[in-house]
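Friendly challenge for the regulars: who can give me the structure tokens for this chain first? No prize, just bragging rights.
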Amino acid sequence: MAAKPVRKVLKRVVEEGMEIFPKQNRISPKGYGSLVRGPLGIHLKTGKCYGFLDPETLERVGKNLFEQFDYLEKVVKVDGVTIAAALAEVLESQPGEKPKRKEWERPEADVVAVASLFTELKDKGHYYIGLCPLHPESHHSFAVYPNPGEVGRWVCFHEYKVGDAVGLYAEIKGMSYKEALRELKKMGLVEER
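First reply, four minutes later:
Bragging rights claimed.
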């Protein structure tokens, strides 16, 4: 995975002045990038174990390795859908970009139906995956998250783009959002709110 999108997300969620890893947007084919100290790693000089930090206080959790393992057993795992939804939210609200239309102003277009015009989607329960219609590729790097009653979202993991059904249609067809909206209305894929 490219480092640039990871850094972009981390910059949005960490406090000002905190160090972010990976430090480079791109890793040289000849190197590994910057050293990162992970929890439970051993310091080569002192022999001490790096511990987990409490996410709120940033204080070390526990006094010994056994307490560190106890803490690790209590960590809640997050599924891919939750991570993708958080990524979509972060990427959609980037500072400095043109303000997005408010949710209540957005047309309710069937994001699954629109995406299906351009790529075959596989149902994964709460979301769909497929080949990205924005890039020629042979692996699934495109996801669609329908949100019945609200605006659904699509995510391109190739470039970490996010948008709604009308925006996807506009981008693929090379037209403005308004032109895409008009065409989708004619096709019956947009409901008026």
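The mean pLDDT is 77. The helical segments are 3-13, 65-74, 80-92, 111-116, 165-173, 177-186. Your move, everyone else.
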